[in-house]
Amino acid sequence: MTSAPVLPTTDELRDRAARLLLEFGVDPVDSGDLPARTPITGGELMRVPATSAFEVTCAIDKAHSAFRTWRTVPAPQRAAVVRRLGQLLTDNLDALAELVTLEAGKIGAEARGEVQEMIDVCEFAVGLSRQLYGRTMASERPGHRLMETWHPLGVVGVISAFNFPVAVWSWNTAIALVCGDTVVWKPSQTTPLTALACDALLRRAALDVGADPRIHQLIQGGADVGTQLVDDERVALVSATGSVRMGQQVAPRVAARFGRCLLELGGNNAAIVTPSADLDLTTRAVVFAAAGTAGQRCTTLRRVIAHVDVAGPLLARMSAAYHQLPVGNPFDDAVLVGPLIDGRAHTAMRAAIERALADGGELICGGERVEVGGGDSYYVRPAIIRMPAQTAIVREETFAPILYVLTYHDLDSAIALHNDVPQGLSSAIFTGDQREAERFLAADGSDCGIANVNIGTSGAEIGGAFGGEKQTGGGRESGSDSWKAYMRRATNTVNYSTELPLAQGIRFG
Q: Which residues does the UniProt record annotate as the domain Aldehyde dehydrogenase (predicted)?
């Protein structure tokens, strides 16, 4: 097992961050009360101004005012902004990915993949701008036409999390803009620098194509800033990504004012491994899904439910792979596991491991902190724990690289075990049996929003609607027909006759 022993200093990373911000046209003024830290060393890169309550109101004012004009621009013309944003992201892919690594601690390959995902969703949204289809239905009344049309919804509030500091913003923003909405973005207070860069790119894209730059507003700060966005009646839709606890606070507040919510919350994702599974393929998929991003994805694989006949051989393969995972500096191309975001994440991981062991779990490998260059950073070896049963801690989501392994005897009991958690985001089955695959995908199979066969739980493509059920929130972002969440539907009846027949054959007068 290897680790990257040397880290750049915080001063070096601070200089790197300032240089990158200048590339995006952002003045790296080190003043404000919002610290931008890097999990690579745990040090502070700089401070940025938090948005005041008055400034939040002004930002929503601007977005609401811009919406009144933006909604009248034809959708293919609105797409020009998103097309230009995609071009700018392509030109600045490496620089933005570097900022993602600095702030979120992602390894280079994953950070570049996140920016590529932004480019892909821009392409998707541009094509979508010519496909915001309504439908025409047969009217029961002669000389009448019955149809549905879709119209821009209003201001969309986007609240994003640290683990995908730029991609989730793009999923929402690219589609909202082509749908005719304007956007107010409240990023994680942990990743303010990537937000400044994205806002600068979108502002430049709007100016380049002659669009009103007020269509996008960035607000920065803590929970008070998010609460103000959630409570403002001018915000028609709140799209929030984060913990279940956050969603439980957001949803009732938005519902109380009859706004709309799009929630993408926690995941406790599992993979069923059957006797017919290709164990080499399964191992590769499990290791990436469980250890990638240091376990800090909502789609991270957290449970493996293996048939008793294959659990031993699978555990041996996974343990061997885990022992070879390089942990360390995410700027090192040889490293596959970067740091946890902060000390609280490490504390939560240690507490979860202790609870699992107290419940009779067996620690197969990992779980210990890795000393990488000193400082206040938190690097850990991904852990595998074999559990005798699905205890309370297994049913919780710990946002860290802990993989619980359970066993089963028959597929029905495996599916029941799989579904017996409050969350319902992503899921997988590894099998060479088509009947088993179809059973898992059936209505009484996986209860998640994403169900895969012979592929891991993470790494979704932008063409498919992303989101989940139960405590995951029920929202859908990105692909398929998720655009409908960002628009309002109107049913239209047109009478082109000289008569006035009523529906259901009613006669009046």
A: 33-489
